[in-house]
Amino acid sequence: MIPDLMEETRNYWHQLDELEAAYQRGEVSIAEVNARVKELMTDLGRSRRESLTYFWSGICRLWNDQRDAIVGVAGLGVLTYGWLLVR
Hints:
- Keywords: Coiled coil, Membrane, Transmembrane, Transmembrane helix.
- With about 90 residues, the protein is an all-alpha fold.
- The chain has two domains: about 1-45; about 50-85.
- Helices cover about 90% and strands about 0% of the residues.
- Helix 1 (about 5-25) runs antiparallel to helix 2 (about 30-85).
- The radius of gyration is 23 Å and the shape is elongated.
- The termini are far apart.
């Protein structure tokens, strides 16, 4: 499953907006707001770590599967840059 960090961030801000509105209406106390914000931040942090882990595992998998091609293209890039620099 691909983590959708943008959607998680949108949900986070939406829930914060709802919490602020409830606080402004006097429905929740400041202590409840602080506790809920801490929970929301923890959830968003977990989503960010999951996204970073997914991204990093994709990079590692690509490196393991295509190492020779990546090194070859990088080598050609360095040689081309050197050739253009000397020319």
